[in-house]
Amino acid sequence: MDQRRILAALLIAGGIAGCSSLPGSAQLDAITAQTVKASFRDEGIAKVDRLVQDDSNRECSEAQAEGRAISAERAKAIEAANMKTVQWPSDGKYLGDWKAGEQIAQNGRGLTWTDDAKTPNGGNCYNCHQITKEEISFGTIGPSLYQYGKLRGVTNPAAPESRAIVEYTWGKIWNAKAYNACSNMPRAGYAHILDEAQVRHIVALLLDPQSPVNR
Amino acid sequence: MTHTRTRLALLAAASACAVTASFAQKSATEAIEEYRAMLADGNPADLFEAKGEALWKQKRGPKNASLEACNLGKGPGVVKGAFVELPRYFPDTQRVQDLESRLVTCMATLQGFDEKKIAATPFGRDEQNNVTALATYVAAESRGMKFNLPQSHPQEKVMYEVGKRLFFMRGGSHDFACASCHGEDGKRIRLQDLPNLTKNPGAGAGFGAWPAYRVSNGQMWGMQLRLNDCYRQQRFPYPGFGSDATIALGVYLGVNGQGGTTTAPSIKR
């Protein structure tokens, strides 16, 4: 719906109600949805189907716009649905090469309308997280991950006592919303931002005792 | 232009040295602040401002007319103070319009240009370059003034509400919303400080800085291109030039920036 039609609707509604009050919240949601539909178009690999929201995105967006949190019950349901999407390593191997992981963490490319679908995506990790101490250009939207493994007592990722942290790390990268319904973190595996091998490398960056993250 | 580029290159080189040398004593953020302060001396936006002023007065287009009768909201020909009251509702088009979409309307009605064709022209090409220069001139005429967007027309209120919903709308491949980066105080992406655009001082400072000259790519960017590139980085599809989504976001940011002071046209790294 363009603005002129919204205006006409407002005038009619105002005439009937005898006042010029704003449309209700549901009507504003509908106007927003129409505005989105009329305003965006496909460009390169970024198609308008990316505007379709799942429960997590829709409910968290609405709650945040209203300045409230989603209910604990809904958060649990959203987290459970996201948890079902986590694909665990097909060969049971959780850790790859931390050096490859560092490169993926540094790389901010991928999935914009100016990117090529054939170019491997980056993880964009440094945009929001401190990771190694050597890289000073990092963001602060997410928590610092420096000494991620060390702080969690992981000295041998293959040891049974490390299992829970190793699995959590994999799952968090694959689908962050499995653990926090309204997390700001992209769902790297679930959304096909990173493939299984890339996730393995990122897990190594965070948990390998040889990684500069933990040294 | 060549002279300015050379001067900029020198500035950038000098700043790079300053940044390297001062890391030991200063935080990276402080060093970046210093770099920005050095850039601010000799903002090439001045050139675009001058170009925009000339374009405003020049007889152009199929109707061979100037834009001097253009109504930016404060009456025909009134430029001073218009920037800090945009986007606003215009009775003639029956739409809320931002600075750039309004300029294109004036180019169409007064000068006879094809409004749709200009809107479809990619940023940085042909008449879009002129729109950016004109926006730079108009913004500069309000430099130092405080934002005071009207919210009296129902449509302006609707656009604020739509803009707010869009600001928090998570989507794209990465589930990002504008709020992912600009919804909290004191956050940064890489080393770039992010204004909190939900309130002041962030909203006034952030919204009130564009058009801005970007040193990194040597281009003048208007608010439409700023929002467009934000959506690109959010991995959203492409928002049309002057689309209601971009204008609604402008209303949300501008109203949140109420009382904040505009610095446009500014300079960005």
TrEMBL record, chain B:
<feature type="signal peptide">
    <location>
        <begin position="1"/>
        <end position="24"/>
    </location>
</feature>
<feature type="binding site" description="covalent">
    <location>
        <position position="181"/>
    </location>
    <ligand>
        <name>heme c 2</name>
    </ligand>
</feature>
<dbReference type="GO" id="GO:0009055">
    <property type="term" value="F:electron transfer activity"/>
</dbReference>
<protein>
    <recommendedName>
        <fullName>SoxAX cytochrome complex subunit A</fullName>
        <ecNumber>2.8.5.2</ecNumber>
    </recommendedName>
</protein>
<keyword id="KW-0479">Metal-binding</keyword>
<dbReference type="GO" id="GO:0016740">
    <property type="term" value="F:transferase activity"/>
</dbReference>
<dbReference type="GO" id="GO:0070069">
    <property type="term" value="C:cytochrome complex"/>
</dbReference>
<feature type="binding site" description="axial binding residue">
    <location>
        <position position="182"/>
    </location>
    <ligand>
        <name>heme c 2</name>
    </ligand>
</feature>
<comment type="subunit">
    <text>Heterodimer of SoxA and SoxX.</text>
</comment>
<feature type="domain" description="Cytochrome c">
    <location>
        <begin position="158"/>
        <end position="269"/>
    </location>
</feature>
<keyword id="KW-0349">Heme</keyword>
<dbReference type="GO" id="GO:0019417">
    <property type="term" value="P:sulfur oxidation"/>
</dbReference>
<comment type="similarity">
    <text>Belongs to the SoxA family.</text>
</comment>
<keyword id="KW-0732">Signal</keyword>
<feature type="binding site">
    <location>
        <position position="226"/>
    </location>
    <ligand>
        <name>substrate</name>
    </ligand>
</feature>
<keyword id="KW-0408">Iron</keyword>
<keyword id="KW-0574">Periplasm</keyword>
<dbReference type="InterPro" id="IPR036909">
    <property type="entry name" value="Cyt_c-like_dom_sf"/>
</dbReference>
<dbReference type="InterPro" id="IPR009056">
    <property type="entry name" value="Cyt_c-like_dom"/>
</dbReference>
<dbReference type="GO" id="GO:0042597">
    <property type="term" value="C:periplasmic space"/>
</dbReference>
<keyword id="KW-0808">Transferase</keyword>
<dbReference type="Pfam" id="PF21342">
    <property type="entry name" value="SoxA-TsdA_cyt-c"/>
</dbReference>
<feature type="binding site" description="covalent">
    <location>
        <position position="70"/>
    </location>
    <ligand>
        <name>heme c 1</name>
    </ligand>
</feature>
<dbReference type="GO" id="GO:0046872">
    <property type="term" value="F:metal ion binding"/>
</dbReference>
<feature type="binding site" description="axial binding residue">
    <location>
        <position position="106"/>
    </location>
    <ligand>
        <name>heme c 1</name>
    </ligand>
</feature>
<dbReference type="GO" id="GO:0016669">
    <property type="term" value="F:oxidoreductase activity, acting on a sulfur group of donors, cytochrome as acceptor"/>
</dbReference>
<feature type="active site" description="Cysteine persulfide intermediate">
    <location>
        <position position="230"/>
    </location>
</feature>
<feature type="binding site" description="axial binding residue">
    <location>
        <position position="230"/>
    </location>
    <ligand>
        <name>heme c 2</name>
    </ligand>
</feature>
<keyword id="KW-0249">Electron transport</keyword>
<dbReference type="InterPro" id="IPR025710">
    <property type="entry name" value="SoxA"/>
</dbReference>
<keyword id="KW-0813">Transport</keyword>
<dbReference type="GO" id="GO:0020037">
    <property type="term" value="F:heme binding"/>
</dbReference>
<feature type="binding site" description="covalent">
    <location>
        <position position="178"/>
    </location>
    <ligand>
        <name>heme c 2</name>
    </ligand>
</feature>
